[in-house]
Amino acid sequence: MENFTFYSPTYFVFGKESEGQTGSMVKRFGGSKVLLHYGGGSVVRSGLLDRVKDSLKAENIDFVELGGVRPNPRSGLVYEGIELCRKKNVDFIVAVGGGSTIDSSKAIAAGVVYDGDFWDFYSGKLIEKALPVGTILTIAAAGSEGSPDSVITREEDMMKRGATGDAIRPKFSILNPALTQTLPAFQSACGITDIMAHLYERYLTNSTDVEVTDRMIEALLLTMKHEGPRVIENPDNYEARANIMWAGMMAHNNSCGVGRTQDWNSHNIEHELSALYDVAHGAGLAVTMPAVFKYVMKHNVMRFAQAAVRVWGCSMDFEHPEVTALEGINRLADFLTSLGMPKNFSELGAKEEDIPKLVENLCCGNGRDGKISGFVTLDKDDCTNIYKMMI
Ligand code: NZQ
Ligand code: ZN
Question: Could you tell me if the CB of 283 is within 6 A of ligand 1?
Fold first, then answer.
């Protein structure tokens, strides 16, 4: 196991009607003037936004609103949010929505207290200071409710990049699984895929003797394998929703990733797809992961074979472990397809002729030096081959 530090100070309020505690949570963490940030309208239609406002009013907390966050959130609204917060002396941001709304809130929070362009953080600068952020989560997926990360797309060149820093870990996150019951099946499946990707990105490690985190990841993958189909079959299954929601947080607050190197190449490769085609992040990952895993499998066949046996129930072929490894990857791919996820480039709406552009942005965009590193370091040729495998 590698040396590590781990700081995860988010206060979680989990369960039915927990959004009623928004006002008291803001008060607890010192907020007096709130920016309520939300997406394209699902929280208005469901009545959630009104309940959140009532909760703030009950604590005499003043607020301003900014809606309109799109999936794959854009820089334009972040600049707007920064302006608004400065003008209205906002001292606390409450995100009501999914990963996109939370990430947009985190970007605004970092930008408000920074003199330069907030995009500096998405070009590698660590976020050390930010306004406090709280979240009311409406989709189990990105894990942003417990993570120190935010992913934004810069509109001028459609560059999708991440920023990080403990300063943007939410002060509180309210997780009411019932709020996810209104999700369309496709979005539920995208979320399940993303959660599983966050687990695999940590499972693919070059560190040895990481039994505790290996076993935690396997347990969470088994949970997703069990609960995923139950939620697709019955969107109102509160207990399955609850297990998936907490798994989504556990998958990405890094409690499963400490003490080990991690991968993140599937995410990097996918981010170019959601930047160029505006596809849902989870859908992009469903197509990306099997291709990446097959391409890098030979680097450590036993790692993939272990997942195949422990998670996917394959029997171990000791003479040909690569057969077991490949079977595990195929079972993952079939599982994602069974949830309704796309399986190739054309189902995503991606085009073969765009591959050079995808590879150029991926390997060289925003200051990268021609390759991406992770479980295996991949250069432009590798990435070209991987995109071709997705056709
Ligand atoms: O915008 P509204 O109207 O709210 O609709 C949303 C959106 O269209 C809808 N939705 C959310 N909750 C709903 C609902 N519809 C009905 N009922 C509900 N309860 O679902 C759509 C997707 O929402 P979004 O916030 O985009 O989903 P998600 O949570 O998957 O976030 C995706 C973004 O997170 C980034 C991704 O790259 C992507 O940009 N990620 C962020 C990470 C982080 N900050 O740690 C890590 C992840 O790996 C990921 O990269
Ligand atoms: Zn993700």
Answer: no
Residue with CA closest to ligand 1 atom 42: 142
Q: Which domains does the chain have, with CATH numbers?
A: 11-179 (3.40.50.1970), 185-389 (1.20.1090.10)
Contact 198, 137 (CB under 8 A): no
Identify the segments of the chain with pLDDT beneath 50: none
- Sign of the torsion angle spanned by Cα atoms 382, 100, 105, 240: negative
DSSP string computed for 335-371: HHHHTT---SHHHHT--GGGHHHHHHHHHHGGG--SE
pLDDT recorded at residue 310: 98
Name the β-bridge partners of 97: 137
Distance from the CA of 139 to the center of ligand 1, in angstroms? 7
Sheet with 172-175, side-by-side order of all strands: 11-14, 172-175, 133-137, 92-97, 33-38, 62-66
Q: What is the pLDDT of residue 240?
A: 98
**Ligand 1 contact via 151 beta carbon (within 6 Å):** yes
What span, in angstroms and rounded, lies between the C-alpha atoms of 340 and 299? Answer: 30
Question: Is 0.85 topped by the overall pTM?
Answer: yes
Helix axes 265-277, 185-203, angle to 10 degrees: 150
Nearest listed ligand to the Cα of residue 196 = 2
Buried b (16+ CB within 10 A) or exposed e, 182-218: bbeebbbbbbbbbbbbbbbbbbbbeeeebeebbebbb
Q: Which residue minimizes the CA distance to atom 40 of ligand 1?
A: 142
d(CA 73, ligand 1 centre) in Å: 9
Q: How far apart are CA 112 and CA 123, in angstroms?
A: 17
Rounded Cα gap, residues 70 and 77, in angstroms: 9
Give, in degrees to the nearest 5, the angle at Cα 16 between 15 and 19: 90
Neighbours of ion ligand 2 (CB under 5 A): 194
Return the pLDDT at 256: 98
Find out whether the beta carbon of 139 lies less than 6 Å from any atom of ligand 1.
Answer: yes
CA of 380 to the centre of ligand 1 (A): 29
Instruction: Report how far ligand 1's centroid is from the alpha carbon of 61 (Å).
Output: 27
Supply the pLDDT for residue 342.
Answer: 98
Residue type at position 212: V
